[in-house]
Amino acid sequence: MIDIVALRTLVALDALGSVTATADSLGYTPAAVSHQLQKLSRYLGAPVTERTGRGISLTPMGRELSSRGAQILHDLEGIESEARARSGDPRGRITVGGFSTGIRGLLVPALPRLRAAAPELTVTNVESDPDELVEMVSAGRIDAALIFDWNSSVLRLPSTLTSEVIAVDRADIVMHRDHHLADRAEVTRSDLVGEVFVSAPRGAVCHRWLVALFEDLASEPRVEYWAVEYDTQVEFSRSVGALALVPRLGRPHLPADVTAVPLDDPSIARSIHVVWRRSMTNSPAIAVLRKEMQAIAGEFEGSDG
């Protein structure tokens, strides 16, 4: 019978394209990945990979086996989830992905609750952008992920994944207390035209959303400073007076000379979803993860940020 570990290695290689990425994804060494592929080739009596330049690619038989093997692994995961659901006890190990403020604001506070509710369950995490997280869940590299989309846009997921909204997170305009807009109860998007901003890098989800705020104003944000982390954006606001669009969830502590002014439109918000593979829907581990993060999300929304 084909070894499941070797099959999983082949499927991961097909999805990720390199031995190094496959090793990182599965927690193996590159040598262990090569060993699993060689073992599979020996068992089948024909190679499943071949050299292509400095790397390797799948042979026609390897591609066929990967395609069919991915469905087999999906079915096995479903069987395992259903079996564990009968016991009702969350146990084992799951890896949860998330964006930085989602991890800080939802996953981290949920961990003590998860330890109390499911002492036999180990939860680890990875941090990445929403697009990458969806690929990681779909490929089986992680078990679930927190992702977000802005302004209730349609969340597009592969058919093998499912999701639910667990929080709606408004964003405010962070600015120095000496800024001429700082004494407003709210600001409009028109108020922001011509103002200097600090933003996440071009192409990042949060930068795209900042640009979208100005689309129907026939304008673009005047971005003069760039920073990935919200903590750094807050420092730009404090030091040089730049404005920053900063969500409330997981927001860093604001210095005394910095304030957050709400936008006048409450629909300008991001929806936060937890995403998992459909084959794990019956998993007690996924169920308790969703329950405890929903509880944290409810407390966050009840506090109004």
TrEMBL record:
UniProt keywords, alphabetically: DNA-binding, Transcription, Transcription regulation
Keyword Nucleotide-binding appears in the UniProt entry: no
PROSITE patterns listed in its UniProt record: HTH_LYSR (PS50931)
Family matches, as InterPro entries: LysR_HTH_N, LysR_subst-bd, WH-like_DNA-bd_sf, WH_DNA-bd_sf
Superkingdom as given in the UniProt entry: Bacteria
Cited SUPFAM superfamilies: Periplasmic binding protein-like II, Winged helix' DNA-binding domain
Span of domain HTH lysR-type: 2-59
PANTHER family: LYSR SUBSTRATE-BINDING, TRANSCRIPTIONAL DUAL REGULATOR HCAR-RELATED
Family in the record: Belongs to the LysR transcriptional regulatory family.
Name this protein carries in UniProt: LysR family transcriptional regulator
Taxon lineage: Bacteria, Bacillati, Actinomycetota, Actinomycetes, Micrococcales
